[in-house]
Amino acid sequence: MTDGSPDADRRRFLDERRVICERRMDTLHAPTYDERWGAYVNEAHGRCVQALIARLAPGSVVLDAACGTGKYWEMLLSAGLGIVGVDQSSRMLELASRKHPEVPVSHGSLQDLVARADLGSAMDALLCIDAMENVGPEDWPGVVKGFAAVLRPGAPAYVTVELPEDDIVMDEDAVTAPLVAGEVLEGGAYHFYPSADQAREWLTERASTSGTSWKATGTSTSCSDAAELRSGSTAISEGPATPGAARARRGRRHLVARRTPPGAGRCRVT
Ligand SMILES: C[S@@+](CC[C@H](N)C(=O)[O-])C[C@H]1O[C@@H](n2cnc3c(N)ncnc32)[C@H](O)[C@@H]1O
Questions:
Q1: Residue 270 domain-assigned?
Q2: What is the CATH number of the domain that holds 88?
Q3: Which of 140, 157, 186, 225 is the most buried (most CB within 10 A)?
Q4: What is the pLDDT of residue 84?
Q5: The whole model's pTM is what?
Q6: Which of 18, 20, 21, 114 is the best mutation target for the ligand 1 pocket, counting ligand atoms within 8 Å of the beta carbon and taking the most?
Q7: Which residues contact 214 (CB under 8 A, 6 or more apart)?
Q8: How far is the CA of 127 from the centre of ligand 1 (A)?
């Protein structure tokens, strides 16, 4: 029960979206995920995952948060890395475990990472790819805190953030839903697309915990943006469509962030 206040309405709405997302993944997307999306690795994602791998010593352990069916695990395992997979969809985890029974997985949400004592400050790196669009604005700071809480200080992370695009057609129930700016109900799915500035702010300022900070940067498939990346400025990349997309999307972009020790220099992913 909620007390009918706007905050309570929002909380109930976001909790419902999370349940619906889990159900949709279990029933709608998991059965065909690998067939439809498993073989395709977005060029920027592939490059950034490789860049992250290059920073890690063999035996390092990567938390793949919202791991889905473990699309990037082959890359990580062949580099001699350990993996821990977490996802809120049991069915996605089941498919991941079928392919890689040696990888420990657990059922859990991004929102609950901060309370995961079993993972606390122990991870050498983090991946969270194509999942943050399922997290509502009120939950963003807590999720990023969770990322910081599971990582060793200075450990690298690759977190993708979908940014708004211009061709969204909302579902009819969006009219009565308590949506805030950046949120969409589309094709039965809830997505939140923060502005680039907002995402950067959450990733850099508000997520600071225990003396560590996040620096947001970007990546891109183009050489000029790669040069910007090396100089530490922010670039935006093109990314892949996700299963929630009913059609090909234009202008899908991602930010990348990594956790840095306090006082660290400019952020580099490469
Ligand atoms: C598009 S898939 C991406 C999976 C994988 N990271 C990849 O790149 O193939 C999104 C995944 O995020 C998971 N997910 C969505 N919201 C989540 C949440 N709040 N907590 C944990 N997992 C979540 C879904 O269950 C799904 O497996």
A1: no
A2: 3.40.50.150
A3: 157
A4: 98
A5: 0.83
A6: 21
A7: 144, 147, 148, 157, 203, 204, 207, 208, 257, 258, 259, 260
A8: 11
